[in-house]
Model the fold of this input.
Amino acid sequence: MTKNRLSYIIKNFCLVYDFNDYHEIDLAHSSDIDNQSKLRIVKGSDHPKENPCFDMWDNKKIPFLFDSEKQEIISEKDNRVVVNYDILSPIFYLLSGQQEIDCKSKDKYGRFQYKDSLQYKFGFAEIPLVNYYFDILKTAIELAYNIKIELKHSFTTCLTHDIDEVDSAWKHRIRIQLEKKNFIKAGVYFINHLIKPFFPWRNLEEIMTLETEKNVKSTFFLLTKNNKIDEIKNADYKLTSNYIKKQLLNMTNKGFEIGVHGSYKTHLKTNNLGQDIAQLQKEISGNRFHFLQWDMTKSPQVIEENKLNYDTSLGFQEQIGFRNGICNPFYLYNFETEKAYEFLEIPLVLMDCTLAYKDYMNLTPNGSIESLNSISKEVKKFGGVLTLNWHNTFLSNYLNTEWKEFYFNLIDSLKKENSSFETCMDTAKKYKN
Done:
């Protein structure tokens, strides 16, 4: 492994652990048993194995992706410590986005698919595997240098809302009846809307009120375009509407964060995302791309060149969990400069439609509890960030009412687990300081 890539790994390690003495660590990534470094990480294969070895660490069975033969995880001999599995290569492979660059298959939106991931292949989507590798590295450093290394942060939750639809619920209600051939009912709904306008997705103020009552703040990601691109719609609202202007003012006055929800295909061109940011006419700290669009060869540069502090697009659309194998904010890798990008990526861990949609996990709220409890315990274990994306359409009294109740109950449950709550902007600031 090159010096730059090793430095990149250590840079991300130091986001998780309070460890400032890494420059004094004599660490080698080598299969040479005669290597005299005080700490040696054995080098595995050049690519992930088809049949990686699974072993136990911290009561969790985890895959060692670049090794296929079972070893003692850490051994000590002659005042030297050896990690006998290659943990550095898979850390880089997952964190940097190399996995996605190597995969040529994309879905119709140009996205990396869960079914093409190592997480799917080896069943560790809901395990922050990089954090376990980091924990092994931490333990090895402690043994080699007789020191104690502590986690830098405590369990945090970031509540976020992608605001895609605000004005079109009345059309949606009529369309559903037309699809069912209930023409009379569709007509009644149309007349009712003319008499008493039906806008249940104009609930942004209600969301802020309910969250304020629970003493939490969230981040709202706003689309700035309401056009269609390749028949894919952006927002159903305009930023210039009186309702949206009022809610943007409310968000600012009440201490909520406004982020940009980069419109369709802005993940490919710096200027296109820049135009979206400019339309908000506010100081914007972070982004999440519409439809979670992301191209690992282009999107990081788009975020960087727009001088954003963070992005939080990287989660699987189809599966909750850890797309880059980590539950903490981290830096992506610039393969051209061979250095870390300057913005932080805040992993998107779980999303309402991922849980609910038939084409994804197809779970009920009750059916989601076990997975969410397991994931929150993993995030808490490593002092990570549990980032939720709950659309305002899942927080209305028109549809998805059970998911609305579930969301606010989840906040209560996370409070009982001693999670703090921060906006994405505040989390990014904390990690960068």
Summary: The first strand starts at residue 17 and ends at 18.
